[in-house]
Structures are given as C-alpha cells and as structure tokens.
Amino acid sequence: MQGRSGLEIEIKLRVADVPVLIRRLAALGASPEGRVFERNTVYDTTDSFFKRTGRLLRLRTEVPVGSKTLRASRHSALATFKAPAPADPRSRYKEKIETELPVPNPERWARDLHTLGFRIGFQYEKYRTSFRLPGVYACLDETPVGAFLELEGKPATIDRTARRLGYSDRDYIRGTYWDLYADDCARRGVLPRNLLFSRGKVRLKAVFA
Questions:
Q1: How far apart are CA 114 and CA 122, in angstroms?
Q2: Residue 17 — φ and ψ, nearest 5°?
Q3: Per-residue DSSP letters for 138-204?
Q4: Which domains are seen in the chain, by residue range?
C-alpha cells in the first residue's frame, strides 16, 4: 500500500454554469477522466485542535457514478492529512503539506480513529469529475451549496488556466468546503451541521454525454 506526500497548491473557482465550463475545458483539450460520488468525513480531536491550527484529517470514500450497486469492490477510500505550508499569508493560493494513503478497510480505519480518541467534526458530500490539463489537475465539484472548479498545480499554471477559462485572480477562493458551507448557512440564518445532499432530491444534469 503506497501513499504520496508533498506540497499542494490549489484554488477554487465558483462555477455559475456547468455546461459552459465543460465546453471551455474541452476547448483547452481537457476531457473528463472519471466521475465519482464522494463521502468525506473530517476527524478532529475533542478540543478541535486540527480545525484551530489549519490541519485536516479526512477519510474519503468514492463510488463511480453510474454504479448499479454499492458493492465494496466498487469503492475506493483515501485517508488524507493536511498541514499548513510556509507561505505568505497574503498569497492568493491555498498551500498545504499533504499526505495521502489508500485505505483498504475504511470501516476499520474509522473505528481505530474513534478508539484513539478522534471524533467526527464534519461530513460533506459531492460529485467530482476529474480533468487533466498540461501542468494542472482540474476537478469539477458539485456540492449542495453550488458547483466549484478546483485547480491544482504551480501558481503560474493555475493563473494561466484560470484566465483561459474566463476567470481572474479576484475570483480565487482559498477556503475549504467547510468555509463555503458555513458562509452559506450564515446567509440563510441556519446552524451549520453537515454538507449533505437531501436524499431523494439529487437531480444531476447529463452534461457529460
């Protein structure tokens, strides 16, 4: 079982029109590499040390969209730990030291974390479609609070790709999905809990025909 570790540099961009974005990505030579439904569980200590210090411990499970069943053989799971990277606080990019590790038994992994004293701090769901472009990894995330494009790579490549997609650096979002969800809850005057789709109400457009 092999993981990876390194510096992650990324931004998010709010997507107002998913089909238009897909056409713009295609014009740049990108094509979807796969579409999955994600369930993300963020763990923390009882005193919220990770959240207070900008760290993250997450278990992510993925199911390919279009699966007829939720058989374990169709699942993949990934544990991720992120920590702040030395960076200019005024930087327009989100920079983290990231370590990822495939998890063959996510249920056992979750139980072990509970035994060690970790608790579930936040859960969120999204549909993710991945794209590959020269020098940048792009992910279209459809969430209950809107659609977002993540661009990961070197700063110059991120900037160039964002501009070609019709964005400027004023559009860059450095926040997490918790931040976006908490802002949405504040606007609606409701208490943040978990960012989950309402069961039976998910209707996705077929934009990848």
A1: 14
A2: -140, 105
A3: EEEEEETTEEEEEEEE-HHHHHHHHHHTT--GGG-B---HHHHHHHHHHHHT-----B-PPTT----
A4: 4-188 (2.40.320.10)
Q: Which residues pair with 124 in a beta bridge?
A: 40, 195
Which band of pLDDT confidence, cut at 50, 70 and 90, is reported for residue 93? very high
CA distance 142 to 148: 7
Q: What is the mean pLDDT of residues 185-198?
A: 95
pLDDT the model gives residue 66: 72
Q: Band of the pLDDT at 3, cuts 50, 70, 90? A: low
What one-character-per-residue DSSP string does 81-112 give?
EEEEPS--TT-SSEEEEEEEEE-S-HHHHHHH
Confidence at residue 120, expressed as pLDDT on a 0 to 100 scale:
97
What's the whole-number mean pLDDT along residues 118-139?
95
Three-point CA angle 110, 51, 171, nearest 5°: 110
Side chain identity at residue 99, one-letter code: T
Secondary structure of residue 48 in the 3-state scheme: coil
At 202 the pLDDT is: 47
| Three-state secondary structure call for residue 72 | helix
Q: Which residues of 100-126 are buried (b: 16+ CB within 10 A; e: fewer)?
A: beebeebeeebeebeeeebeebbebbb
156 Cβ neighbours under 8 A, 6+ residues apart: none
User: Which tokens go with 34?
Assistant: 């796969």
Across the chain, mean pLDDT equals 89
Q: Take residue 13 and report the two structure tokens written for it.
A: 């961009």
Could you say which DSSP state residue 208 is in?
-
